[in-house]
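[Discussion] Sanity-checking designs against the backbone

I'm trying to build intuition for which residues belong where. Below is a structure token string of 207 positions. I'd appreciate it if someone posts a full sequence so I can compare it with mine line by line.
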């Protein structure tokens, strides 16, 4: 069980400064520091994980590419996508990394079920999929027993930048959003964001 869970609503923020802030909080935290969920959106950016291969960056064009320390390959962040950074003490919660990944994936699955979308995780490729198309990506870094980075859910965004990369290192992988799957439903970004935090917190605290 965690000591506490704080929510931080950051709005639209720069990627690099947010990345540095996550690392700083993780470096300075101790066993009494509350866990934190950061809900935010980024300006358009490609992020390349530690094992990322340049061949998966097909045509980044004018969108910046940032090398970061999470696992996985390249992905895209942009307006209309909710990002939840999960600054979480795994040791305190007696949770391993695989359990954390599973809990985050199931949080997204349960959220999408609320919107009548049938989604599932893929054990071979972290993230959440609807009919084989990716709707949420996941990438984490664990340092001193604590996680940072987190998950990204495509809500109502321009999906075209995903065509400039092999998403998460998979050529031809289709990427979808809630809006593309629910064209007649008017989605509230704020409502989806709050719902997403509710589901993430519930799945982390239930362990």
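Best answer:
Here's mine. Compare freely.
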């Amino acid at each position: 069980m965690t000591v506490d869970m704080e929510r931080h609503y950051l709005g639209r923020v720069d990627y690099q400064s947010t990345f540095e802030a996550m690392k700083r909080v993780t470096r300075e935290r101790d066993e009494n520091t509350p866990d934190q969920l950061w809900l935010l959106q980024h300006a358009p950016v490609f992020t390349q994980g530690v094992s990322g291969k340049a061949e998966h960056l097909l045509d980044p064009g004018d969108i910046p590419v940032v090398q970061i320390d999470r696992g996985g390959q390249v992905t895209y962040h942009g307006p209309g996508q909710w990002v939840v950074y999960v600054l979480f003490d795994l040791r305190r919660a007696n949770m391993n990394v695989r359990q954390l990944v599973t809990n985050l994936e199931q949080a997204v699955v349960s959220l999408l079920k609320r919107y009548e979308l049938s989604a599932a995780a893929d054990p071979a490729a972290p993230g959440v999929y609807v009919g084989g198309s990716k709707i949420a990506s996941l990438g984490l870094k664990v340092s001193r027993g604590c996680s940072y980075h987190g998950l990204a859910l495509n809500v109502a965004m321009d999906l075209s930048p995903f065509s400039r990369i092999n998403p998460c290192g998979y050529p031809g992988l289709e990427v979808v959003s809630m809006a593309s799957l629910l064209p007649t439903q008017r989605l509230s970004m704020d409502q989806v964001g709050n719902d997403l935090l509710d589901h993430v917190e519930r799945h982390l605290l239930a362990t």
